[in-house]
Amino acid sequence: MSESDDERSIRRSALWRIHGLAAILGTPFLLVAAVTGLMYAFAPQIDAWRERAFERVAPAPWQPLDRLVDAAAAAAPPGTRLRNVTPPVQPGDVLHAVFSPGPAAATGNAHGGHGAGTGAAPAAESRFGPRIPRGTIVHVDPGSGRVLGTQAEMDRYSTWAKRLHSSLLQDDGWRWMIEWAATCLLVLLLTGAALWWPRRGQPFAPRANVRGRGAWRQWHAFAGFTLALMSLAIVLTGLTWSRYAGDQVRGLRDRIGQAPPRAPSNLRSTGAAGAAPLSWQAVWDEARRGTPAVALQIVPPRSVDGVWRIFTPDNTAPTAKFEMVIDAYRGERLFYSDWRDQTVFSKATAIGIPFHRGEFGVWNQCLLVLFGLTVLFSTVTGWVMWFRRRRRGWLGLVALTGRAWRAVPWRWSVLVAALALCALVPLLLAFVLLLLAVEWREARAAT
Prior knowledge:
By secondary structure, the protein is an alpha+beta fold. It folds into 2 domains: 5-40 and 171-254 and 356-446, no CATH class; 58-155 and 263-342, no CATH class. It is built from 13 helices and 10 strands. It has helices spanning 5-41, 43-50, 65-75, 157-167, 176-196, 213-226, 228-240, 244-255, 280-288, 344-357, 362-388, 411-421, 426-446, and strands spanning 80-86, 95-101, 125-126, 129-130, 136-140, 147-152, 297-299, 307-311, 322-327, 333-338. The strands form 3 sheets. It has a 4-stranded antiparallel β-sheet, covered by helices on one side. A hairpin with a 5-residue loop joins β9 and β10 (333-338). The longest helix is centred in the first third of the chain and has 37 residues, at 5-41. The two termini are 35 Å apart.
């Protein structure tokens, strides 16, 4: 059955009200997210330029890893513990060792020298990552063993820009703002697509002879619609590791059996009495045996019976990533997983999240810049249209054709679907409640 003109008018006015309210509530935060995202887009190049003094060295045979770790430990600030070491991959690469504030564990072995033993994350770390990265990075020339320099984690532009984008340099309590921006953008995308879906006889590209508010409207629609799929990908990947929606998504992932394989936390090393622990070099040699030639991050044992944990920190090649746990005395692999062991969900996030961060290269970064500029353009043109044709009264939303929501034929199905989606995107419930409050207030004012 085809939709009548009256039904179409009612549907569009209802969509305009939802779209307009999402813009009013979300665009201030979207502007912050877009600007800070643009500042983060080319962070790798900015880091490389700022850290050029200790990022590349003359190629030379590498010294044993233990000697390099000892050199890094000697240059680390007092009262710190070794968190992880990233050895070089190719000639000319530099070794990076990260030390975190905190006492060293009294392991009494050669697991890392100064401040080593725990391998744990810094005290101010949560499931979202370090709230305030307080570690120190020591850069060592693997050929000469010379310390090239030390650097606070927060001195890195990428770390600063990432925290600015996610929490405005505050703690986890501020992460809701970016999640709220993503939630409102999701509403804007869905309602915008429904409003501007090309109809028969309607040109998709903007027309040059249109002037005034119509010109703003067609360019606003064209910009939003052409990048709708990318916008949806950015929103969904961002929500997967957000504060509230991330918890819900991960919970659903685990319940449907899509959790990625993880090393058990209770793995322990079992060496004979008086056995000497493995050296850093022995662990590195074992980790490189039969694995892709990618960067490795080595985390030393937390205690005498702890284990070595090896990860691939580089996200630019998702299919080459792996995780490994090695017995600290026998050198046996207690756990190993790679791309073949990942679930469908974990493979999707292994691609989607690096894409969201622009880690696949310049083409990826340019797409993110285009997306950020489109968000800014859509926000500005949307506000221009609102000022040109706002209604008198509260918020200036488009009048609802039919005078009441009971005239909207799909109101209950959309409300039920939205409430169901709130189970995965909790902040969407806040938007639904705000929408109901606005409509209740306007209904009372009208009567």
